[in-house]
Design goal:
It comes from Cerasibacillus quisquiliarum. Its cofactor is K(+); Mg(2+). The chain is α/β, with parallel strands linked by helices. The protein folds into two domains: 204 residues, 3-Layer(aba) Sandwich (Rossmann fold), CATH 3.40.50; 269 residues, Ribokinase (UDP-N-acetylmuramoyl-L-alanine:D-glutamate ligase, 3-Layer(aba) Sandwich). 40% of the residues lie in helices and 15% in strands. The chain contains 16 helices and 18 strands. The longest helix has 22 residues. The protein starts with a strand and ends with a helix. The relative contact order is 0.10. The protein binds ligand NAX, adenosine-5'-diphosphate and potassium ion (K).
Length: 484
């Protein structure tokens, strides 16, 4: 599924227009498709209000109102900001009247069961004007089902900023042609409710898309019957200090359960003995960090990771450089994510910052990052020729050429210390088993979130812990591999 910017939608509309598809027809399709999407959510005797603005978002509301009224729904169409001013919306209002349909006066004292927001769409510039703010806050105070058309009024299409928190708080949003970036940014994303896209019959395509289960299935490596441990490569993870052994254990769990043939943990004596009790399959490079700094990389390593459970230091920086020089695909996490001018490496480098770490890398505030995480991750990836996995709800994966993905899986069960360590292990392991490093990164992030989704089918998200991945990974991977 593709994700769009406002300018892409305008271009698509313009192209359709040039090819003979009038905006009147597009709006007609939008209104009719919205009607079909909304039918399961509303009842004939619900008191429904459609709040229509003066632009084309308001025009969608006019068409929607006609379809609902023709089907016998109890709908009031109102224009609290004044009558439409765009040509297409005006044409649709004329047509609406020709069908003997009526509009109502805006009366905030009336009570409704369903409020449909067609006030502003992708033409929004913020902040909202006072008259719009009043209608939005009226809507949010009502005890009614709230449905937004295209985007909730008060958010923009491309940025996550919501000044003073004044935006229509939707239970459902129906986005025309495709979802917009702000659905996945913060705080805007918290105003959309359940979001679906509504086709208006135009061709899809964009440089940003959501990872799909089908794409993960299609790119997941086959396990041939003749395979042996060498087939699936040896992974190396530099992790853990005596006071943070758990992170190394969790990274080892993530790696060993995700397919790698063999796992070498570069760590301290003490951490090695802790790992050995939970992941007896691991082998060890003792005094790991120091040994790697001295250039000692074990043989046959096909993928590496560094960072879980170690703090930023000169030796971590040095070890990271040694690994970058080796040409082995490298995941850089936690303590190894340090600001540097140059991430030049011989093989792919994958940085996995959470917003706090990305803030340290870029000098931007966490708020700024969350409101614009897609573009910022993409910019960093392109500028530094690295892959950025910017973690959190809707993890962003940006590749050095600008190709960018949003991960749809995961939930608050992952908001626990240690789940990022598991992810690092998983990415390294999948780098070892996949031919294409991009597929490895996308698939690991998707499956990591899928584990949390599977957990929440039976248990509370509150109760999930990172060590649960030990038994969740087998279930998640079965769902991916089942149809192979
Ligand atoms: N391909 C598509 O996706 C289609 C989209 N359509 C609809 O067209 C919409 C875009 O239409 P428009 O470009 O007319 O944009 P809007 O309907 O968002 O209206 C923008 C107008 O609202 C006013 N406005 C903007 N910010 C404001 C603020 N902060 N306070 C008060 N008023 C403000 C301005 O006068 C601006 O011209 C989409 O969101 C969608 O609903 C459909 O009609 C047709 C097909
Ligand atoms: N609310 C959430 N929804 C989806 N994924 C989440 C959520 N909170 C955290 N995650 C995921 O959990 C992991 C946490 O990683 P990180 O912050 O590095 O934790 P740690 O360093 O403690 O292991 C990331 O993969 C992140 O995307
Ligand atoms: K809207």
């Amino acid at each position: 599924m593709y994700i769009y910017r406002a300018d892409e939608i305008h271009q698509i509309d313009q192209q359709a227009l040039e090819q003979g598809f009038s905006l009147f027809s597009l709006m007609e399709i939008a209104g009719r498709e919205l009607f079909h999407k909304m039918k399961p959510l509303i009842k004939k005797d619900d008191r429904i209000i459609i709040l229509s603005g003066r632009g084309n978002n308001g025009g969608d509301g006019i068409v929607l109102s006609r379809y609902l009224r023709m089907a016998g729904y109890n709908v009031s169409l109102v224009f609290p900001l004044g009558r439409p001013k765009t040509e297409t919306a005006k044409q649709h209002l004329d047509y609406y009247f020709m069908q003997d349909e009526k509009v109502d006066e805006w009366n905030p004292n009336q009570v409704y069961d369903v409020i449909i927001d067609c006030l502003l769409g992708i033409g929004t510039t913020l902040p909202l004007r006072e008259n719009v703010k009043q209608v939005v806050s009226w809507s949010n105070e009502q005890d009614a089902l709230r449905i937004a058309v295209d985007i909730p009024t008060g958010v923009q299409a491309d940025h996550g900023h919501v000044p003073d928190g004044e935006a229509f708080l939707a239970d459902y949003s129906f986005s025309l042609h495709g979802v917009k970036r702000s659905t996945f940014l913060l705080p805007s994303g918290t105003y959309f409710g359940k979001t679906e896209s509504v086709s208006v019959g135009l061709k899809q395509g964009s440089d940003l898309s959501i990872i799909s289960k089908e794409s993960v299935r299609a790119t997941f490596p086959n396990r041939e019957v003749t395979s042996h441990k060498g087939t699936f490569g040896t992974s190396l993870i530099v992790a853990g200090t005596d006071h943070m052994p758990g992170s190394a254990v969790l990274a080892a769990i993530g790696a060993i359960r995700s397919g790698t043939g063999k796992l070498v943990m570069a760590t301290t004596d003490r951490v090695a003995s802790v790992i050995a009790s939970t992941v007896p399959e691991a082998t060890f490079l003792l005094n790991g960090l120091e040994r790697i700094c001295q250039g000692h990389i074990p043989e046959k390593i096909v993928a590496a990771g560094i960072g879980p459970g170690i703090e930023a230091s000169e030796s971590v920086k040095k070890a990271t450089e040694v690994l970058m020089e080796s040409g082995i695909p490298l995941v850089v996490d936690a303590g190894a994510i340090q600001k540097r001018n140059n991430w030049k490496a011989k093989g792919p480098v994958i940085l996995t910052p959470h917003p706090g770490e990305f803030s340290r890398l870029t000098g931007l505030s966490i708020e700024e990052i969350q409101a614009n995480r897609i573009e910022l991750a993409r910019h960093y990836a392109m500028h530094h020729h690295v892959t950025v996995v910017l973690k959190g709800k809707y993890t962003v994966i940006a590749f050095p050429d600008g190709e960018t993905y949003i991960n749809p899986t995961g939930n608050s069960g992952l908001a626990k210390g240690g789940s990022g360590d598991v992810l690092t292990g998983m990415i390294v392991s999948m780098l070892a088993t996949h031919d294409n490093y991009r597929d490895a990164v996308k698939n690991a992030v998707y499956v990591h979130g899928l584990c949390a989704n599977i957990w929440s089918e039976k248990y509370s998200e509150t109760s999930m812990v990172a060590s649960d991945f030990h038994r969740l990974l087998p279930l998640a991977l079965q769902r991916i591999e089942r149809n192979k």
